[in-house]
TrEMBL record:
Pfam families: YtxH. This is YtxH domain-containing protein. It comes from the Bacteria.
Amino acid sequence: MKAKTLFLGFVVGGVAAGIATLLSAPASGKDTRKYISIQSKSIALQIKELGEQLKEIKSRLAYVGEEGKEALSTLATDMADSISQWKKDILPHQQELQKEIANIEKSIADLEKTLNVPSK
């Protein structure tokens, strides 16, 4: 009995809500349907345009990703080449500095011997 009463309550409530909606609608059904049709077409067009824009953005992001990957690869290669060339360029200077440091250390040791300073 309770289910039947509940169902009957839903039906009566639905009919009452429908009647209240029809009586309080600001426009006629024909005008409302026309408005809804125009709005739905407008929304569908906007969604279509948005989809096309998203596809374009996706395409551009893929392109930028590939270009960035290539640029980073080129940059890494160029930097490795530059560092290698720099090492080759400074090698003679590095060797000369090491010789001078060795000569200075030898001179200090000779000077300490001459002055009879105990070595550390």
